[in-house]
Amino acid sequence: MISGTSVSKGIAFGKALLLKDEKILINKKNILKKNIDKEIQRFYIGQKKTIEQIKKIKEINKKKISKKEEEIFNSHIMILEDYEFENEIIYLIKKKLITADYAVNKIINKQIKTFKKIKNNYFKERANDINDIGKRLLKNILNYNILNLNYIKDKVILISKDLTPSETAQLDLKKVLGFITELGGITSHTSIMAKSLELPAIINTYNVTKIIKNNDYIILDANDNKIYINPDLSTINLIKKKNNIYIKDKKKLQKNKNLPAITLDGHKVSIFANICNLHDIKFIKKYGAEGIGLYRTEFLFMNRDNLPNINEQIKSYKYIFKKNKDNPIIIRTMDIGGDKNIPYLNFLKEDNPFLGWRAIRISIDYKEILYNQLKSILLASIYGNVKIMFPMITTIEEIYYLKYELKNIEEELKIKKKKIKKNIKIGIMIETPSAAMMIKEFAKEVDFFSIGTNDLTQYTLAVDRGNKLVSHLYNPLNPSVLKIIKKIIDDAHKYNKYVSMCGEFASDEKVTLLLLGMGLDGFSMNSSYIPQIKNIIRNNKYKDSKKLANLILKQNTLKDILNCLKINKFK
Prior knowledge:
Layout: E1 5-8, E2 11-19, H1 36-60, H2 67-81, H3 83-96, H4 100-117, H5 121-141, E3 156-160, H6 165-170, E4 176-181, H7 189-197, E5 201-203, H8 208-211, E6 217-221, E7 226-229, H9 233-255, E8 261-262, E9 268-275, H10 281-287, E10 292-296, H11 310-323, E11 328-332, H12 360-365, H13 367-380, E12 385-390, H14 396-415, E13 426-430, H15 433-436, H16 439-443, E14 448-451, H17 453-461, H18 479-494, E15 498-501, H19 512-517, E16 522-525, H20 530-538, H21 542-553, H22 558-567
Parallel strand pairs: 2-3, 3-4, 4-5, 9-10, 9-16, 10-11, 11-12, 12-13, 13-14, 14-15, 15-16
Antiparallel strand pairs: 1-5, 2-6, 6-7, 8-9
Helix pairs in contact: 1-2, 1-3, 1-5, 3-4, 4-5, 11-13, 13-14, 21-22
């Protein structure tokens, strides 16, 4: 049995199909001057063929991928058509007298090295995209056969060193049961697609392509992050029973998805969805969300070459607001920086970007972004029950400034006789210890709070969760993190302010009763987790969850807290 990093839940049983990438043999011999035009023509033929293939992949898979995934392929085409990219290759062929494949290989490797040097997950993932494009282009120049994953004959579990976005999008969901890769990142495009396609997937498995052979019988348990290779009959039967329970429970939970999150003794909380794009809207109704607790607008700004204009933003916001007209929608202003960079903004290299220029700091400094976004939200506000939330607030001065700017834009639109919603509620993310200590002061200026546990944990513990040397110390169940969460909730309630949580912690079923007992008013999460969280709340008593919270908050070590949670397991 082996394990890695589970990125998309589910259990799959089937034979392994090992995808071993064919070694590309580059011709590094010099060419004669008379053959320059011939090599340039080879490049152009390969380029055209590659663009046509990517367009075809995008078109074939249009119905099963979201707008965000579609943009991945658009960006691949843009790279292939890029004037500088093309010119660099032509220059090498002419001046260095080398083959088209050697010139492409040189430029691709140069770009990959450049991206990998940047200490940022976003750019490291883009290196994978360049690698994907480069391999396809080289194979087309050299007339290699390219594997078409749309035409897999039997039902299989794919085993690969890595799967590129273009390969993932080709997967025939009737034949591909799941996939396992040696490489990959949680934030990679491939992982995003796995979730979107609802395929069980485990990545970061050490040497899996050397351990698993073609036609090995595999159990891919992405629920427990376990991979079984040629298991015995008793193990197969055991996991099949587990899978039947998992499927049955999912169906049962779906039947009660629209019931309110009310405890057995009558305490109600709100359960909302986190969304990134227009594609996520369909899951809100499917999984029974009561509204949108976090609309991550930064994804409007990503996978493109320039800032979205006001009309583009209005169109997106209007669509989302109209689709959820009767439910509350919390729209967060752009939260970039840290591990979410935008190349066209020309970020300066920072030694520690999480402690640098990010989120609201960028919006305040880059006034065009803030002005256009607030104006767009206001102009679309008449179409829904919208609230505005600002990320990464650390000082009261930031709130003063943002409220002042918002009021000025409201006055400007009023003079122009534009219709906007009046008295829009304003909230802030609590993501730093400094913000947690200022709830009393913030409560006089804002209407609600949302706890962002991903950053709050990182900043409270002084742990960079992306640093392998210290990532084991990152845990929101650390006593200090729990105490600071409790303080935020209690302080907000003193001033009758609503407190929700939109970090990953909110969807962790192991801590649902703990957070409930701590007094949290609302949970916001990826839509697919909602039925299970509702079920836990509906089958327990609020008074019992308060006892559990009181017990856990008295513990001084992470080990003791984990033991308490095991003993007091939810129903």
